[in-house]
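Hi W., the adenosine-5'-diphosphate complex you wanted:
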Amino acid sequence: RRMIEFSRVSLKYAATQTLALDDLSLTIRKGEFVYLVGHSGAGKSSFMNIILKRALPTGGEVRVAGQPLSHYRGRRTPQLRRHIGTIFQDNLLLDHLSAYDNVAFALRVTGVPGREWPGRVTAALRTVGLEHKQRTLPVQLSLGEQQRVAIARAIVSDPPLLLADEPTGNLDPDNSREVLRVLQQVNLRGTTVVVATHARDLVETFRHRTLTLRRGRLVRDDALGGYAL
Ligand code: ADP
Ligand code: ADP
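Structure:
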């Protein structure tokens, strides 16, 4: 039932003594589409980094797909990450690889048998509307197309959970809407989707549950969405 459960979670960065998450409790159910909004520094990236075990909470408990994160210790950490697709600003496309190879690259690390790659990669590129650009290099793609390849890469292994941090960050309104439509389509197939964003117009156009963070605390949880900062 539950994909993400935070129970009284805090995260204090030792170096700066910053309390990035402060006694945060929330639940995201399997199959939900959720926006995470809040000013810069509110704790959105910290929330995602905890789910990926890139940061360890200094207090509280986190469960992902019913398992406490402590279950994914050591060599099990990659097993956790294999189940989570990510669209982050820092995972750029490899510029010497075609769109096809960039997406296929994600399958190499997940243990999907090679004979399944072509079908899977083509299907993922079809989902983002780029089936005809399989052989194209990133430099020959627009920013919007590049972001859609990054989405294809994130979904090609069919992850139960997709985390997107500012997925429309550099995009114009038309491309931003296209990215949102693709994320919604992925969600309709059963993937739980969490989108951290500053894009007020998108949050108000494509309505979904919206969690608002302020100084590491959950200050709003709106079932029907809306941007209230
Ligand atoms: P958001 O994604 O909403 O902009 P972040 O989670 O990145 O917020 O940041 C929350 C707070 O934690 C901010 O005050 C930020 O400066 C601080 N912070 C984030 N990452 C680190 C880090 N690696 N070391 C120290 N402080 C950090
Ligand atoms: P397998 O190795 O066959 O994937 P697991 O025990 O890892 O088996 O997972 C069992 C089920 O739980 C699978 O449906 C998997 O997708 C789901 N699952 C496991 N870990 C996670 C996770 N971190 N996030 C989301 N779903 C997960």
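The chain has a mean pLDDT of 94.

W.
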